[in-house]
Every structure is written in C-alpha cells, then in structure tokens.
Amino acid sequence: MKTTFPRTYKRLLGGGIALVLILLIGTFGYYHLTGKQHSLVDCFYMTFITVATIGYGEIIDLSNNPAGRLFTIVIALFGIGTLTYSISMFTAIVVEGDLQETFTKRKMEKLVRKIEDHFIVCGLGRVGTHIAEQLHSAKRPNLVVDIDEKKIEFVSSNFPNQIYVIGDATDEDVLVEAGIHRAKGLFAATEDDSRNLVICLTAKHLNPKVRVVVRCNEPSHRDKMRKAGADATTLPAHMGGFRMLTEMIRPNTVSFFDSLLKDDESGLHIEEMRVTEKISGNIISALNLQNFPNTILLAMKKNNTIIYKPLPDTVLENDCVLLFLTTAEECKKLESNA
Q1: How far apart are CA 138 and CA 205, in angstroms?
Q2: What string of DSSP letters covers 261-323?
Q3: Confidence class of residue 230 from pLDDT cuts 50, 70 and 90?
Q4: Among 10, 177, 316, 336, which residue carries the largest CB count within 10 Å?
Q5: CB 133 within 8 A of CB 121
Q6: Which helix (H) or strand (E) holds 228?
Q7: Confidence tier at 1 by pLDDT (50, 70, 90)
C-alpha cells in the first residue's frame, strides 16, 4: 500500500532544490573566477567533488586565486550541509515508509482476524465499489478483496476504516484470509463472469452456509451461476434499464421505495427477520405487534412462497422470513424477542 509523508517530502524537495542551486552557483562561480579559462564541465566537476567531499585534488588550480579558495570554502560549507540534509531526508522516507507499511499491514491482519458476521466484496470495479460504499453507509461490517492495490487505495482513501485483503478472490487461501468461514455473505462483483463463477464455487466449497450474490453480465450465464451455488444473481444492465423505465413511468413509487430500502438509522424502512426455533410454532399474534406502533407486518416468505399480509393466527415455522415496515429501534427489539 502506498504511504506518503508530506512534511518529509517537502523537506527533501527543499533540500534537493537548494543542492541544485549550490551546484549551479559553484559551476558558474568557478567559471567566472578563473576568467573562463576552464570549461563548464570542469567547473561543475570541481563543485561536485567539493560538495561530495570525494577528496580528489584540485582540477582547477586555485593556489594563486585567493577569491577562488574563499569561494570553495563557502561552497563546501553550504554544499556539504545541504547534501547531508538531503540524504537524511531520503533515508527518513525509506525507513518511515518501510515501518509504516509494516505497521499498516500488521494492523490490517489483526482487523481481518477479528471481523465476523461480515460481508465480503470481491472485485472493486464500479459495482463492487458501490456495494462497499453502501455497506459503509449502512454501518454493516464488511471486507473488500481485490488484487489491484490502486483500487484498494481508492476505497481506503474514501473510507479510512475500511478492512481489506489484497489478493485474487478466486484463490482459496485469499478467501480463508478474508474470513469466509465467519462471513455472513459474499458479493462476487468482478467484471468477469468466469471469475465470479470461480469465486462462487470456491466460497460455497469453503462455507456452504454463506449467502453468495453474484454479478452476472451475460443473461445466458445465470443458470451456470445458480448451479455453482449462487443464492442470487444480478444483471447490472438489466437492473439499470428497469430502473430508468420505472423512474420515467412511476417516479413517485421509486422515491417511496428508495426511502424504505435505505438502510439508515432514521425513519421507516423495510427489514426482514428469520423465524428461529425460539418462536417457531407460535402464531403471529404472539409477536405482540400492537406494542410496536411503527411496525407493520407486510408479508411472510414460506417455502419460496410469499404470503402477503398474513393473518394473526398464521403459524410461524422455523426458517420462515417475515418482512416488516419498521424503524431501526423497533427492529432491534423485534430481533431480540425472536
């Protein structure tokens, strides 16, 4: 990961400019003090060996030139000091860069080992970057994976607390490092359907329980993605076209559902809750929804069938999913009761 130290770089730049000026002043100074009897190359060489303290003999004879020797003393004093300063700044950048890179790498490794129940975003193209942005806005724990360090840098610069793994997401070791066994879900969002297919297969092989959503660029590849274990597939082009059409013919409906689907801490939004063994076998009325004034039960998904506005005496079965229109606060209370 690229690391910058603005203050040290500025000092190095200042030292470099000062060194160049001293070399130019020394070169033209000797040229004029010797009556232009020596070439500019000889004058530059004389200046350089003086500043660098190489210790060769005078290639320009100054034994009968007191002004030239005094000039040499001045060049040596300022030049040696400036060269030493520039070298120290360069060394500082190298040492600090190595130390900072090592520190950042170790810190990131610790964060990766600690994260759990998180979402893994594989591929930081336009789609993957947008997913990471939405997860960050929703304050959902997430980790991004990409082999391109520049893309990792871009996301990290926008989200300083972003956890990442640099590597190829099709590699089992990379997904293990990303915590696939502890992950809640994975997005295969690269721009290559073949890579997304391999990522899906690898993720499901390592953790069959993880939910995998795959980006699919070609409609003909959706069945292959499903057979590979993808829980859901998305067609960015299809979704974009559908969204544009809906914006044109039902703009208010789109705005309404956007506000409900927005995952933030304010206002109403749509949330889903899976029925656990704790409440399985009870009827919906046992949830005491009357105690949640801002919560409306919209539907229940049961065996891939959606029951809209289920009746109060509907039996809750294990692994059924309830869809609510609710607030963040009441949603947390509902989940705690479930």
Answers
A1: 29
A2: H--SSSS-EEEEEE--TTTTTSBGGGG-GGG-TT-EEEEEEETTEEEES--TTPBP-TT-EEE
A3: very high
A4: 316
A5: no
A6: none
A7: very low
Strand pairing of 142-146 and 119-122? parallel
Identify whether the C-beta of residue 199 lies closer than 8 Å to the C-beta of residue 122.
yes
Q: Are 44 and 23 in contact (CB under 8 A)?
A: yes
**Residue ranges of domains in the chain, CATH in brackets:** 6-110 (1.10.287.70), 116-240 (3.40.50.720), 265-337 (3.30.70.1450)
Q: Tally the residues of the chain.
A: 338
In the block, tokens 């000797």 appear at: 30
- Rg (C-alpha) for the chain, rounded Å, is 33
- CA-to-CA dists, residue 119 to 12, 23, 44, 130, 206, angstroms: 42, 57, 62, 14, 15
What is each CA distance from 151 to 106, 128, 154, in whole angstroms? 20, 10, 5
Predicted TM-score (pTM) above 0.70:
no
Burial status of residue 258 (CB atoms within 10 A of its CB: 0-12, 13-18, 19 or more) = exposed
Long-range CB contacts for residues 45-51, cutoff 8 Å, separation at least 24: 47/22, 47/23, 47/75, 47/79, 48/23, 50/26, 50/75, 50/76, 50/79, 51/19, 51/22, 51/23, 51/26, 51/75, 51/76, 51/79, 51/80, 51/82, 51/83
